[in-house]
TrEMBL record:
Subcellular location: Periplasm
Keyword Transport (UniProt): yes
One CC-aspect GO term: periplasmic space
Highest taxon listed in the record's lineage: Bacteria
NCBIfam families linked: TRAP_S1 (NF037995)
Any Pfam family hit: DctP
One BP term from GO: transmembrane transport
Organism: Pseudodonghicola xiamenensis
Keyword Transport: yes
Name assigned to this protein: ABC transporter substrate-binding protein
PROSITE patterns named among the record's database cross-references: TAT
Length: 332
C-alpha cells in the first residue's frame, strides 16, 4: 500500500506542464486539475463541470487550470501524486484507488451487473453510502469530491463478433491489472492481459491483444474504432471516475472554500452523468457510421449468472462494498 508519507519520502513528483491548460480563471487561489482522458470523454466533463460549479459558487476565488490527455501523467501517476500532495485535484479511474491506497471500498462500483444504468448510478453516488465511500479515502490523504459513471463498459473484439458466452473463451482481453477485473474476466472465460490505457490502440493493432472491455467514450476518444470493428453491448459495469483533492490542498482552504469545493463536486456528478448517458447512446450511432458492428450478446443472462457469485465474495471483503450492494439492490 502506498501512503502519502511513503510517496513523499521516495520523492514522487509530477512532471512539468506539457501544454496550455484548458480552463483558466482570472484570479484567486491556483488550482491544477489533471486527468488522463480525451476532451470528448466524460472524465473531462467531470473536471470542467467541477471548475464551472466552483466559479458559480465563489466567483474569482480560484484560478483553475485543467490538464487533460495524460499531460501530467496517467491515472496511476496522478493518483500517486494526489496522495503525495504534489497534485492539487485529479480525476482518476476509481478502480485504481484500492490498488494504490489499500482502501477497498471503491471496488463496490464495479460489481458486475449491479448498477443498471446512469440514473441508478447517480442516485447511489449522491447517497449516504456514496459519500461514505468517498470519505473512506481520508486516511490515505485524499479528499473525495465526486464519483461519476463515465461510460458503461462493453466489449470490443478485433477478430469477430462476440455473440455468445462461448465466444469470449480464450480471447486475450485487455484489463486494468487489478484483482477485481482479473477475477471477473477469468470467470467469463477470457485470458486477461494487464495493459496501461494509453497502450490499448497499439496492442489491438499489432495483435498483442484480441479484445478490450471498454466504453463508447473511450472508443471515440482513443479512436479505437479504427482497429476494432466488433463491439458487443454487455453493460457489465460502470466506469467510475473520482475527483480527488490532496490533503495538502484541502488543508490550505478556509471553511467557506471547503464548503464550495464539496458542493462543486456534488454538482459535477449530475452534469457528467447526463453527458455520459447522451454520449453513450449517440456514440453508438457514430461508431456504426464508422464501420463498427454494434451487436448484443445473445446470452447476456448466462453471463450475469456466471459472474453472480463474485458479488457476494467481494461483499465479504469490506463493509462499504456490502453496503453499496445492499443499497443498489433495494433501489433496483
Amino acid at each position: 500500500m502506498i501512503t502519502r508519507r511513503t510517496l513523499l519520502q521516495t520523492g514522487v513528483a509530477m512532471g512539468a506542464v506539457l501544454a496550455a491548460p484548458h480552463v483558466a480563471r482570472a484570479a484567486g487561489k491556483m488550482m491544477r486539475i489533471a486527468h488522463g482522458a480525451n476532451e470528448v470523454h466524460p472524465g473531462h466533463m467531470l473536471a470542467t463541470s467541477f471548475a464551472e460549479a466552483l466559479e458559480e459558487l465563489m466567483p474569482g476565488a480560484f484560478k483553475v487550470s485543467i490538464f487533460p490527455n495524460r499531460q501530467l501523467g496517467g491515472d496511476k501517476q496522478l493518483l500517486e501524486g494526489t496522495v503525495a500532495g504534489t497534485m492539487d485535484v485529479t480525476a482518476v479511474s476509481g478502480v485504481l484507488i484500492p490498488l494504490v491506497t489499500g482502501r477497498p471500498g471503491m471496488n463496490a462500483w464495479q460489481m458486475p451487473f449491479l448498477i443498471r444504468d446512469y440514473d441508478h448510478f447517480g442516485d447511489l453516488a449522491l447517497s449516504d453510502v456514496g459519500q461514505k465511500i468517498l470519505d473512506d479515502l481520508r486516511p490515505a490523504g485524499l479528499i473525495g469530491l465526486a464519483t461519476a459513471d463515465t461510460g458503461q463498459r462493453n466489449f470490443l473484439s478485433v477478430k469477430k463478433d462476440v455473440l455468445t458466452l462461448d465466444d469470449f473463451a480464450g480471447l486475450k482481453t485487455r484489463i486494468v491489472p487489478v484483482p477485481l477485473h482479473k477475477e471477473i474476466w477469468e470467470t467469463v472465460g477470457c485470458s486477461p492481459v494487464g495493459l496501461p490505457y494509453g497502450e490499448v490502440y497499439g496492442a489491438l493493432e499489432t495483435g498483442v491483444i484480441d479484445a478490450v472491455e471498454i466504453n463508447v467514450s473511450s472508443m471515440l476518444g482513443e479512436n479505437l474504432w479504427e482497429v476494432g470493428k466488433h463491439f458487443t453491448l454487455t453493460g457489465h459495469y460502470p466506469w467510475h471516475m473520482v475527483t480527488l483533492m490532496s490533503q495538502r490542498y484541502w488543508d490550505g482552504l478556509n471553511d467557506e472554500e471547503k464548503a464550495a469545493v464539496t458542493e462543486a463536486g456534488r454538482r459535477s456528478v449530475t452534469k457528467t452523468l447526463a453527458y455520459a448517458k447522451t454520449q453513450d447512446l449517440e456514440g453508438r450511432e457514430v461508431l456504426k457510421s464508422r464501420g463498427v458492428d454494434v451487436v448484443g450478446l445473445n446470452d447476456l443472462e448466462q453471463m450475469r449468472q456466471r459472474v453472480a457469485g463474485l458479488t457476494s465474495e467481494w461483499a465479504a471483503k469490506d463493509p462499504l462494498i456490502a453496503e453499496l450492494i445492499a443499497s443498489a439492490n433495494q433501489s433496483s
